[in-house]
Amino acid sequence: MTQRPLPPGQTLTRRFPVVGERAPPAEALDRDAWRLHVSGAVRVPLVLTLDAVFALPQRERTIDIHCVTGWSRLGTRLQGTPLSLLLAQAEPLPAARFVRFVAYSDRGHDTSLPIDLAREDTWLVHGVDGQPLSPEHGAPLRTVTPSRYFYKSLKWLHRIELLEADQLGFWERTSAYHNDADPWPGDQRYTSGSVTPALLARFKVAEDFSRWRSARRLILSADLRGWAPRTRALGAVQLKNCDLRGAQLSGVDLRGANLTRCDLRGADLSGADLSGADLEGADLSGADLEGADLSGTALSATRFVTGDDGARVEGIVLDGASGLLEAQEAYLKR
């Protein structure tokens, strides 16, 4: 059978990596107290128990998942209910143009979609591949919108709001993720870079990075090729989708840093402390990682080898790291 094409920059996996938040608040898993609220620009506001949601017509659908970090899982079977059936009960008003989904979440996780797209493509899902969802994947109920990157699919669904005007979701507000999130035309992962050239120049020569350790100070899509920071203390720095090819980061403290989708090919990270860092989707092919500490890192769609270009990994520490895809795990084991 011929494999379906993948969107740009994606890697195929048979696994189902955990992305985003790992655990919901306790109320999300309390079946008796759990409620789904449907409100906003609707004629019939709804409050449903979990049993009421499961009493809706149940169907199965086979879809492909494309995560913004760079992995794709084809042929995933969903068990649940099309959102359109629930919206039909709520009777959206003519003014309703967007649907906002809000999670049971300690950090206020939410996302939004145009109403026509949500009607056509979004499902309320409680099972995957014939098994109930696990809490880390969104149990007891989540949304899935397969035509968009996976950050538009919400774990631990709590509220559905019909809106006249759009509201940017959690990832769009905090990490400059693209609001359209279509994997196919132009690879809509992020909006444009987050800093001016003058600010980036100051960042490159900074000796104190305390102001860059917050999601509000995210450096996005910056050209940092060959960067040699003046200090080794870069812990928790927020870099996403940056070009760090050939960067001189030997012995640098990058504990808890966010390096999602960064290009680190050929970088010198020997002896660096990356423990607890987010390296999802990062490319470390050809990098020097000798003696680097990657314990507790998030590694879904992270690349250590591309073709014949492999990272140097002698003495690397990977205790508690999670999310490795199959080919990368095999390379590290060799």
Task: Write a short abstract of this structure.
With about 325 residues, this protein is of the alpha+beta class. The protein has 6 helices and 15 strands. The chain folds into 2 domains: about 10-175, Oxidoreductase, molybdopterin-binding domain (Sulfite Oxidase, Chain A, domain 2, Alpha-Beta Complex); about 195-334, E3 ubiquitin-protein ligase SopA (Pectate Lyase C-like, 3 Solenoid).
Head-to-tail CA distance between termini: 30 Å
Mean pLDDT: 95
Uncertain segments:
none
Q: SS-based structural class?
A: alpha+beta
Beta percentage is: 15-25%
- Helix tally? 6
Shape: globular
Q: Major beta sheet, specifics?
A: 6 strands, mixed
Tell me the CATH architecture of the largest domain: Alpha-Beta Complex
Question: What is the element string, with H for helices and E for strands?
Answer: EEEHEEHEEHEEEEHHEEEEH
Count of all domains:
2
Cα-atom Rg, whole angstroms?
Answer: 21 Å
CATH top level class name of the largest domain: Alpha Beta
Assign the CATH topology of the largest domain.
Sulfite Oxidase, Chain A, domain 2
What name goes with the CATH superfamily of the largest domain?
Oxidoreductase, molybdopterin-binding domain
Percent of residues in helical segments? Answer: 10-25%
> What is the count of β-strands?
15
